[in-house]
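Ticket opened by: R.M.
Priority: normal
Category: complex prediction / small molecule

The reporter submitted a protein together with IPE and asked that the result be attached to this ticket for the collaborator who will pick it up next week. Submitted input follows.
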Amino acid sequence: MTREEKSVPVHCAIIMDGNGRWARKRMLPRILGHRAGASALVRIVRAAAERGIRYLSIYAFSTENWKRPKTEVLGLMALFRSYARRKVQELAKENVRLRIAGRIDLFPQDLRDLLEYAQKETSFENPRMTLIACLNYGGRQEILDAFRRIREEGYDRELDEEAFRRYLYLPDIPDPDLIIRTSGEMRLSNFWLWQASYSELYFSESLWPDFDENELDKALSAFSKRERRYGNVQLGTS
Ligand code: IPE
Ligand code: IPE
Ligand code: MG
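Result attached by the on-call engineer:
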């Protein structure tokens, strides 16, 4: 195994940002930016699996995105519907498992049904890669939801990090090693707040619809050069 292969992130997370600006640059409606973004995602899912990434999580709709104009929110729901319908077989063929993180109970029932079906159809025991779609996801919401469940259960044992984690949306998924955000914005916008405590962050100037295999490789190469210390001293100096 080469050094490069060894340092591929197990879990790579992406904040797909810049669809609106991509459309505006072309004088197109924002929803066409989201459509171009969805095509970029299809390419990146394939590329990530080819590079040996085991978990790819993508931030597709935040708990704050409901604030957007109604037409844009409806357009995004329509896009999720169309992808959930059309891409299940492709994911299944590629042995990619789809999982959802977020409050999709607040999505329209037909879309929820499609997403449930897609998860069921791809629930492989040993998938080549797991694709985690973060839909109506908010990090603070997730932590609050965990806390509510803990309280409802009347939990009275020792509550440490490991015990708390079991109440998160997808407790079995390892924390993201690398979080990529496109479009030059440098913030988390409520993404994976609990899980991001030791994630490496990488910011790309590319707008999401322009983010391609080459950009992904740049991010992976930067990641492979990072030294992760987790609060410890630099390796080799102790
Ligand atoms: C990200 O692109 C996609 C979603 C939030 C759904 P934006 O729509 O945020 O694009 P910009 O930031 O306006 O360019
Ligand atoms: C973050 O992007 C959410 C998603 C990519 C789904 P936003 O465009 O919504 O974030 P802000 O508003 O710029 O922080
Ligand atoms: Mg944005």
